[in-house]
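Reading a protein record of the kind used here takes only a little practice. An example makes this concrete, so a full record is given next.
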Amino acid sequence: MDKYINNTYWNALLQDEFNAPYFKQLWKFVEEEYDQTTCFPPKTKIFNAFNRCDFKALKVVIIGQDPYHGVGQANGLCFSVADGIEHPPSLKNIFKEIETDTGVPYPESGNLERWADQGVLLLNATLTVRQGQAGSHQKQGWETFTDAVIKKINSETEGVVFLLWGGYAKKKEKLINTNKHFVLTTGHPSPLSANRGFWFGNKHFSKTNSLLQQNKGYEIVW
């Protein structure tokens, strides 16, 4: 794993997971998939969420489900796309809500590494996917791994803001101690949910900054 996670603190924190039988089986599956088919994100970006968000700077966790499965889209951060890539519908709705909520103008780039660098962990439940096949790497062990990540954050930190968007992410609330962390829930930013009134107006971005300012004296530049 050292080859892909270059953050030593995350490496130490997750070493038990990397050594577990389920993860070894998962990584064997991932290696074979990347060797035999086209998968996303690029192999060096699988753990980008951890490499870009330092554990000791962690302030916010956003949980997604699956990486984008189109060519050039996924960059290892949930909802994020590489520079120069057209913004997918969910990301467009995220940016629209930010603009309405905080006044930050709609950005040209959909690359959310700028958030990760500020302490936002953009964690997909499944970290890899086969091209053109949504959900193709689910139930191989990634969910066990990413649940373990959430549990580690829950136990080793305090005052983190968890943003749980949509039914799948909301299920992760049971892993979080709400007496020491903050949990904000709303509908998924996908058009299906947003167009039914379950996304716009949630004000999660200003609410997150208000919580962070009160507890850590810090805000995220969205």
User: Anything to note?
Assistant: Residues 69 and 132 are 5 Å apart (CA to CA). The mean pLDDT is 95.
